[in-house]
User: Fold these one by one.
Assistant:
Number 1:
Amino acid sequence: MQPGRMIANLFAALLVAGLVGAVFLAFGRPLWPVREARMVILLPPDSMATGSVRRACVEPCLPARFDLKLAPARPQG
């Protein structure tokens, strides 16, 4: 190979690598997503809303209906 072609191929490879790097910098997203912990904060249970264990009951005595406003939302994902 001639030295001129080797230099031209080297510059072409550097140009392609620079374009690929610029695309990654422009869009700003890595190839592999960062894994983050998704936490749900649980509120302390309210015995009047969720149910309670009484001495008169053998099993847990649950209320007739459950207030869904007290329950945390299901996490998306």
Note: Residues 49 and 67 are 7 Å apart (CA to CA).
Number 2:
Amino acid sequence: MKPFLHDKQPETPKSALEDLLAAHADALTSGKPLALSAERLSEAEQAEAQSLMLLAERLSAELTPVTPDPAFVARLRTELLAQAPARPTLLLRWRNLPKRYKVAARIGGLTLTAGLALLASSRVLELLLRAQRRQQAKNADLSLTAVS
């Protein structure tokens, strides 16, 4: 199966600033101290990292985790399941087939395609032979009338 277009594009390498900010976010969520330092960054990047890390720390201190209401979760689940297709799509069903069924389906498709191609080519060949016979008959009639 063909991969999607965005799957073929290589990921852009992460910069040192992104690595530092990701480590800082991980440290904030886990409650552990930051393991990376900003030494590898330029002065401009260090200033940007400092302001972003300060903002993240303030947000982390002010925002409290919220647990959704069980009734809301149940209602949302019901709505999402109601919007989902009743039957799996053809592509999903094809992906879930065992490998031997896929191979058999492909062989059957190739056989059917080859048979249709043979039928079509025999019809075309038959039409070409009829046209050739008509041309030979016309040529024979011309040669007989020219002699008499």
Note: The mean pLDDT is 83.
Number 3:
Amino acid sequence: MGNGDEIKGPAGETPRPPRRPASRPVPAHRAQAAAARQSDEGRELMVRSRSLFLRDVEQQLAKKELYNLDEEFEKTKHNRSPFVWLSVLIFVSVMVVVAILVTSYIQSRSQNVQVNISTFADVNLRDLLDKAKQLDNQLDVLKQDLATLQTNEASDIQNVRSNEAAQIQFVNTQTISSDEKGERIDGIREQANGQIAALRAQYGPKIDADQAKIAATQKSLDAYDTRQVAQAKKQEAILNNQQRLFDLQMQKTTQSYQAQISGLTSDFDNQIATLKRNDADFVSLLKRNQASEIASLIATYNPTFSEPGIVSILAAPTGTVGSQADGYSKLAESEGVASAASDASLQSRLQDFAGLLSRLEQVPYKNSVPGTLDHLQYLHEEIVYDYQQIANGMAAKLSDQNETVARYNFALDSLIKNSRENGYIIDPRNTADLAVFIDPVYKVSDGDTAYVFRNDDQQIATIVLHVSGETITGSLSSLNKAGTPMQPFDKILLNLKQ
């Protein structure tokens, strides 16, 4: 082996003079040219080796006696000898071994070619330093971006909190109950917490992504070997110009960020001063608006009625309405026009109305509403009293009429018993709804037919009886003579054969 910078050629060739060691870094294009020349020399060595091998094979083939295969085949057709096959096998084996040896020799020679890489050391160190500086700058930029995101998030959250405090202050100045204030304040705080959660959900992934990038960049920066960085710093004199450029860029970036920070700080201070100047005016305006809104709400839900008709009603005096004794419920039930359930339902609805109106009177209404509720209560009691009085009067009248009807029924019953008739026509004026009286001893069914006689041998008409409960009426079926209508107390003969 010779000098570390020389390239060994094949045996028999004059060795090349050793190359002068590089005194300065070799540019990248010159290094690529040197690598290309070495590759050309290796290919040239392979061509020469192949030519030598073929020449030796040709000489060996020339020394051997060539055979005429057709003649030998004819000669050995009947006497085949294994010598031929053995000779061919040996010849092929020898050729294969020679080929393998020559190929191995060429490969070993090409592998022993030495390439001096010291000329590339400066370039690698420079790349290493450049990459480290780029990672360091990238790390600073990522940290600045992370700080900006965190500042923006804190500013947005502070704005939400300020708005929350202003709304709570506005609620505290309202003239509402403590419970309602608590509910509104809880709603404001819940809304603010929801907005803050949304902001954190918005900024969180971005902050996490920047932190992950910072961690990855820091890991890549830490991965550089300290010894390589120290060796690269020894070569830093070569990169002074680029280093100064980096320093200028860093200084420019720093100044730019400082100017931005100064401007943001000044704007923030101005905003705070403006907010403080406007705070008193804003609070005063809120109080005036609140008072106006409260007055508007009171006027909306506690109106002052000005209509003449309504004013005259409210001007009427109110007092206490007495109670009426119930003198109609039992009679209505006995007559079938009402029931105990319907009467109980009516009383329940009257109590519900009174209860709802009484609850409304407990609300601290203003203006015309309290007087309106008092008059509604008074009018309700008066209406109920008057209707009870009317019902009691109707019940008394009905009771008297029932007594009169009972007397007539007694008289008719006595008349039938004495005359032994089935019944009588009482009122024939409405032929579709005849008033009749039938002896109770007879069981009449709805739809039964009866005959009307004036004398025992004078039939006047045929009627149909209708039974509804205990009431029996009739309707005209036919008249025997068109000019002879029915008259009161015409006798009824029931058709008992049906």
Note: Residues 349 and 477 are 48 Å apart (CA to CA).
